Amino acid sequence: MNRDEKQREIERLREELARALNVFVMTFEKIPVAADWELRRQVRAAGARYHVVKNTLAERGAKGTPAEDLLRSLAGPTALATTETSPVALAKALSAYAKLNPNFTFRAGMVEGRVVSLAEIAELVQLPGREELLAKVMYLAASPARGVARAVQSVMSALARALDQAVAQNKFQQ
Predict the structure, then answer these.
(1) Architecture of domain 3-127
(2) I want to staple 1 with a disulfide (CB 3.0 to 4.6 A). Which of 5, 34, 62, 70 is the partner?
(3) pLDDT of 118-173, one tens digit each?
(4) Domain ranges of the chain
C-alpha cells in the first residue's frame, strides 16, 4: 500500500468505527479461503461488516472514536467485525464460526460503546436473538387478552347452558 491508500483506509476505518456501536476484534491463523468466505457470508447475514485490518492502520483509524481503547496495542493477525444493529446476532455468528474453526478466536469486544471482556462476549452469545425476544413480548402482551376472552367465553357458555336447561324444563311458557 502506498501512503495515499493507507490514508484512505484509515479514513474508511475511522468512519466505520465512529458509526459502529458494536465491534468485535478477532485473531485468526491459517483459515482456508472457502471458510473465510463462509464467515463473511454469515456476518453479512447478521447485518454486519467483517474485514482483516493491519494493526497500525486500525489503531490510527480508531483515534477519536469509541473504539480507540479497544484497538490499542494490537499484535498478530487481526480482523474486525462491526455493526450498528444487534450485537447478539453478530456475536452468535462469530461464535458459531469459532466453534468450527479453532484458529479463529475472540480477542476483545465493544458492545453499545462499552469495552467488554471475553466472558461478557460468551454471555452475550447465550442471549436469545431479537426475533425470539419480540415473540416472547408479543406472547406476554397477548396473555391478558386471552384470559379476558376465556372468562367471557365461560360466562357465555354458562348462560347458554342455563337458558338451554330452562327451555328444556318449560320455564318460559306463558
Answers:
(1) 2-Layer Sandwich (3.30)
(2) 5
(3) 888 888 888 887 778 788 888 888 888 888 889 899 999 999 999 888 888 887 77
(4) 3-127, 129-174
